[in-house]
Write a sequence for this structure.
């Protein structure tokens, strides 16, 4: 994270969730209060996101559901109660209930082959997988908030740049008016500069609309329909550094995505073990009591039953689970290779954006600024024509817009790289 907090005059206290409040009694004229801007900090935006993000709530609720299911995994199977009444409503001596036999039985299945243990292990793996997915969802929503935060910062700077361009176009128009009134420039200069000024005002209006859209997108990160802030604090000029390629590869197996892949493969192995265990028949023990109405006597019952695996011996279930395990291992290898390639591409994108931003800031923009200053002075002195002035002006603002785009791309690339790494540290800091 690489954003610096912008001081706002006399604002000195943070209130609420990081929105800067105006100082009490601040006035510019007698009895006229200054409407201070509400400035949102990055920490406040992230706190709001973690507290109220709808996307994060989905993963969190799923984790709670899996934890509840894990509580049931290790419990014994429920016993079965059977009540039967025999030798009733018949003929002869079996009329009514004179010869009835009442039997009450209680049966309890006994799981063999470690089925209960395997079920507990599967439940724990499911819980770990849900926790990893919840961690990944948290990393994703934090990264999205940071990206939208950077986009608002870029929109703020783009609006400032567009307004400066509009002001400069107006100044150039006034300079042309002076030369035209002095008879040193043709009237067509006024028309061309009026067109340039109109285009600059249109660009400023478009930048204002873009800022409104990006602010709304940022507020949507925590489920708000409208933003309750005026601007965000920060400076895109401080660029994040690109990590070494070796450091990127080291983090490959530490991300939540990599952890989820490993847990998913372990879960497939557990499913294969369960399929093998299910081939072992589970007996059921029975204990009961029987009453003979005819003799008014009773007796206890004991029994054991075994399912007979005559038509389904479970070999096809084992084969299917084995194939899925092999597929999970192959998928893990493929996904790991793809993740490595994606991480390296993200790291290279960060390095390229940073290099471009540095060249633009140290060479291109200063040269364009000097060129425009020379063209403006020469136009006022009558040494250069309008075309040279317009070309220098466009070159300057094109360079500044490219610099802003490169800085924005650098921050966004850093956020994306750290999201892929599963890092909670973003590309921007106050």
């Amino acid at each position: 994270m690489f954003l610096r907090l912008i001081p706002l005059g006399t604002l000195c206290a943070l209130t609420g969730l990081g929105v800067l409040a105006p100082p009490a009694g601040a006035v510019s004229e007698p009895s006229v209060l200054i409407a201070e801007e509400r400035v949102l900090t990055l920490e406040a935006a992230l706190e709001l996101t973690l507290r109220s993000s709808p996307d994060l709530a989905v993963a969190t609720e799923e984790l709670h559901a899996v934890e509840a299911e894990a509580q049931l995994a290790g419990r014994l199977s429920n016993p079965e109660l059977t009540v039967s009444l025999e030798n009733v409503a018949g003929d002869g001596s079996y009329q009514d209930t004179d010869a009835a036999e009442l039997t009450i039985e209680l049966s309890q299945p006994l799981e063999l082959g470690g089925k209960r243990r395997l079920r507990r292990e599967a439940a724990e793996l499911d819980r770990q997988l849900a926790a990893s997915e919840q961690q990944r969802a948290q990393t994703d929503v934090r990264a999205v908030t940071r990206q939208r935060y950077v986009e608002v910062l870029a929109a703020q700077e783009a609006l400032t740049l567009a307004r400066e361009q509009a002001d400069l176009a107006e100044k150039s128009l006034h300079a042309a008016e002076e030369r035209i009134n002095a008879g040193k420039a043709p009237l067509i200069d006024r028309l061309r500069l009026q067109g340039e000024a109109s285009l600059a005002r249109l660009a400023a209006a478009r930048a204002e609309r873009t800022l409104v859209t990006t602010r709304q997108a940022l507020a949507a990160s925590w489920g708000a329909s409208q933003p309750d802030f005026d601007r965000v604090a920060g400076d895109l000029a401080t660029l994040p550094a690109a990590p070494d390629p070796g450091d990127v590869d080291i983090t490959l197996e530490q991300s939540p995505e990599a952890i989820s892949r490993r847990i998913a493969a372990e879960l497939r192995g557990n499913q294969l073990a369960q399929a093998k265990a299910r081939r072992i028949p589970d007996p059921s023990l029975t204990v009961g009591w029987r009453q003979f109405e005819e003799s008014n006597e009773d007796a206890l019952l004991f029994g054991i039953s075994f399912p007979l695996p005559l038509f389904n011996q479970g070999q096809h279930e084992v084969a299917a689970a084995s194939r899925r395990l092999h597929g999970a291992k192959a998928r893990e290898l493929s996904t790991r290779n793809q993740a490595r390639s994606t991480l390296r591409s993200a790291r290279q994108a960060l390095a390229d954006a940073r290099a471009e931003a540095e060249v633009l800031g140290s060479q291109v923009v200063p040269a364009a600024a000097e060129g425009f200053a020379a063209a403006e002075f020469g136009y006022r002195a009558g040494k250069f024509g309008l075309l040279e002035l317009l070309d220098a002006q466009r070159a300057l603002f094109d360079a500044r817009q490219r610099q802003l785009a490169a800085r924005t791309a650098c921050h966004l690339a850093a956020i994306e790289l750290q999201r892929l790494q599963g890092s909670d540290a973003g590309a921007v800091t106050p």
Summary: The CA atoms of residues 111 and 129 lie 26 Å apart. The longest strand covers residues 101-109. Residues 77-110+280-313 form a domain with the Outer membrane efflux proteins (OEP) fold (CATH 2.20.200).
